[in-house]
Amino acid sequence: MNQIPNAAATGPHSSDEYPTTVLVVDDEPTILDLIVMMLETQGFTVLSAENGARALAMTRTLQGHPINVLVTDLCMPGMSGTELAAELRLSQPELKAVFISGLSREEITAMGVDMSQSAFISKPFQARAINAAVRELTARQPSAC
User: Which end of the chain has fewer CB atoms at under 10 Å, N or C?
Assistant: First the structure.
């Protein structure tokens, strides 16, 4: 966990150069570990961090290796999941995000969260919901606009 394999590794929706890489960020260690384990068993390359600041620091060391999907808790101390996604999208505008929250979809929409490149999963969730959301987002083609 937290290391990028060599470019020859493969995973779901892999390109010739890199496998699909998912960054998981959650301040609850049990949830973080559960999501990481589940995604790794599905063949994704998974990086993890316990907060937004650590996630940003980690991504700065990747030297051009793209994060394909961010899976993050929406409400975390210090930096919210939406703030983290916005910061990461400055250097990776096509980054997809899966937001996880105890709030409802309606509450998330009312907060002004941009869901155009994102999915939302409400807590409590089933592990397969995370896998399905990541697969759906990585299957979407980037917008031409």
Answer: C
Q: Output the six-digit token pair for 106.
A: 């309606």
| CA 107 – CA 52 distance, rounded (Å) | 22
State whether CATH 3.40.50.300 applies to domain 21-139.
Answer: no
Nearest CA among 96, 38, 37, 104 for reference residue 72: 96
In 3-state terms, what secondary structure has residue 95?
coil
How many residues belong to the chain?
A: 145
Q: What tens digit of pLDDT does each residue of 35-48 get? A: 999 999 999 999 99
Domain positions in the chain: 21-139
- Please state, in angstroms and rounded to a whole number, the distance separating the CA atoms of residues 53 and 133: 24
Instruction: Answer whether 18's CB lies under 8 Å from 47's CB.
Output: no
Task: Give the pLDDT confidence of 78-89 residue by residue, as tens digits.
Answer: 999 999 999 999
Residue written as token pair 């089933």: 126
